[in-house]
Design goal:
Blueprint (H helix, E strand, L loop, with lengths): L1 H14 L2 H9 L4 E6 L1 E3 L12 E3 H14 L1 E2 L2 H8 L9 E8 L3 H13 L3 E5 L11 H12 L6 H6 L10 H15 L4 H17 L14 H8 L4 E5 L12 H19 L5 E3 L7 H9 L4 E7 L11 E5 L8 H8 L4
Parallel strand pairs: 1-5, 1-10, 2-3, 4-5, 5-6, 6-7, 8-9, 9-10
Helix pairs in contact: 1-13, 3-5, 6-8, 6-9, 11-12
The structure holds zinc ion.
Zinc ion binds next to strand 5.
Length: 337
């Protein structure tokens, strides 16, 4: 119900012209940096959180919208604009992706090309070209598969997931996703041991332990993206650990090695960075600067401005929820509703 009301309000604001007046006022002197993660067809076998996924149809509609009503910048143009070397065009935007998922190449790239919208992809080098996957997707998938297994009943009870056995097939993915969201606040070591136990149970129950469509780019795909003229690759560190949790030594290692690996494998310069999980501290920001990055993006909600700190660039998160129509998409860009 809430979603219907929101869609209705968005379309009244949009078609009355009110949103466009607001856009002209609120976006003046600013660049909208959009943050995406994954672009997926609806039938894929993914257990990613809804907050990081847009459908192929929605993404296509959004890129057409940006091309028509905004000024999509390349990373180089963005760099010039925020550093005052180039005048800021009206309704400027920059499209970014975090993590380095395989679908950025399979589904996003053809649409970026079709609509002529450049983008930046921040890749976590510990995942690109490997079989590794984030613990969130691994644990969500494991719980989804284990939910009706008698052998897993005690484990599910222990982590507050006893209700999963009763949930119908259609709601099971969302139910396991929200359980994992709750688990997210537990200490890292505890999460690691929970995930390991869930995978032991999968093996005991002879259930698959692969990651389905929750895969990262191969290096060849990353290379094709980097040489596509549409995409620049930046670093999202190596292990995707939030920077403030790392020791000073590991922090330097993560920042330098991921940058060097990207430059070596993709044979192109890397000067941009996105903070894993959006987390930063004064120490991590200065380490990012020392490692040679000149632009760094957070997950704080807001707009980029010429003259603001280029190592703390806020963004606007885009996922399927509340962005499926042009009116809702513009509302999200304006950080309304
Ligand atoms: Zn990330």
């Amino acid at each position: 119900m809430k979603a219907i009301v929101r869609r209705l309000i968005a379309s009244v604001l949009y078609y009355s012209g009110a949103l466009w007046l607001l856009a002209a006022r609120n976006l003046r002197g600013r660049v909208v940096v959009l943050m995406y993660h994954r672009v997926l067809p609806k039938n894929l076998d993914s257990h990613s959180a809804r907050a990081i996924v847009v459908s192929v149809e929605t993404f296509s509609r959004q890129m057409r919208f940006l091309r028509r009503f905004f000024n999509p910048l390349t990373l180089e143009q963005f760099d010039d604009v925020v550093n005052g070397r180039r005048p800021l065009p009206p309704k400027a935007c920059l499209v970014t992706f975090d993590d380095g998922w395989f679908d950025n190449h399979a589904y996003a790239l053809p649409l970026l090309r079709e609509h002529g919208v450049p983008a930046v992809i921040f890749a976590a080098t510990g995942y690109v070209g490997t079989e590794h996957c984030f613990w969130q997707e691994r644990l969500t998938r494991a719980l989804f598969l284990l939910r009706k297994q008698t052998k897993a009943a005690a484990f599910l009870r222990e982590i507050g997931g006893e209700h999963l056995a009763q949930v119908d097939e259609a709601s099971a993915r969302d139910a396991t996703r929200s359980l994992v969201t709750q688990i997210k606040s537990r200490p890292a070591a505890e999460i690691e041991s929970l995930t390991a136990r869930a995978f032991e149970l999968l093996r005991e129950c002879s259930l698959p332990t692969d990651h389905g469509d929750d895969r990262f780019l191969t290096w060849q795909e990353a290379e094709e993206l980097a040489h596509s003229d549409m995409v620049r690759i930046g670093s999202h560190a190596h292990s995707h650990t939030p920077l403030p949790r790392l020791t000073q030594l590991d922090l330097q290692k993560e920042l330098t090695e991921s940058r060097n690996e990207l430059m070596r494998r993709l044979r192109s310069p890397v000067a941009s960075f996105a903070y894993p999980n959006g987390d930063y501290s004064p120490e991590s920001v200065s380490a990012v600067r020392q490692a040679g990055y000149s632009l760094a993006f957070t997950t704080d909600s807001g707009y980029a401005r010429p003259g603001a700190d280029p190592l703390l660039i806020p963004r606007v998160n885009i996922h399927e929820g509340g962005t499926a129509t042009s009116a809702e998409f513009l509302c999200r860009i304006l950080r309304l509703l």
